[in-house]
Amino acid sequence: MIDVRETLEINAPCEPPRESRPSLRPIAVPTAEESRAPFRELYDGHVAFVWRNLRRLGVPEAEADDRTQEVFVVAHRRFREFEERGHGPRAWLFQIVLRVASGARRHRRRHPEIPDGGQVAAQGVIPAPQTDAIERSQRLAQLDAALATIDMGRRAVLVLHEIEEMTAPEIAHVLGIPLNTVYSRLRVAREELEQALQRQGEGR
Predict the structure, then answer these.
(1) Range(s) of the domain holding residue 123
(2) 41-55 burial string, b = 16+ CB within 10 Å, else e?
């Protein structure tokens, strides 16, 4: 069975490539004094989480900054509605991330511009001397391509469990689906990911 965390080398000691870092300017914070600090804290603490999951849900790197801003614009607009219910802000933010990623996917289908999903552009920004970074970027590109073959609903479960290390009950809460559905989607998604990665290996 494929180990997604190992594939991503999340705990690798080497310097992460640019792909793993959102290069964003902070968005405007609320003008209301009572919400300024909490929202800025939310942004600073979770901007990398949002950017990372947009990428894993199929948003090309070339669009990731803009879509991250879009997520926080929505979060800013709905910030007063957020209530802590024991699952933390990541659960709430991921719901927005999923909607934004799905919307971006629909937009690309209607307005195709980058046939390769931006992989060439993503690889082109990495300096040649950074051998380790290039190799890791290529592995991430392969993982992104494999994830792209999986239905968005199953992909969301896989990302939350294997990358964000959420429990099945937490995922059920985030996605608003039954617990048994989480388990079934996770099982199928793992199988589909492994098959996709195997096809990539056979095609080399």
Answers:
(1) 4-202
(2) ebbeebbebbbbbbb
Q: Is residue 142 pLDDT above 80, yes or no?
A: yes
Joined together, the tokens standing for residue 121 give 């552009």
Q: φ, ψ for residue 138 (rounded to 5)? A: -65, -40
Alpha carbon distance 160, 94 (integer Å):
9
- Enter the pTM of the model: 0.69
- For residue 66, which of 27, 105, 114 has the smallest C-alpha distance? 27
Looking at the structure of the chain, the number of domains it has is: 1
Contacts of 34 (CB under 8 A, 6+ apart): none
How much is the average pLDDT of 169-180?
94
Model confidence at 118: pLDDT above 60: no
State yes or no: pLDDT of 160 exceeds 70.
yes
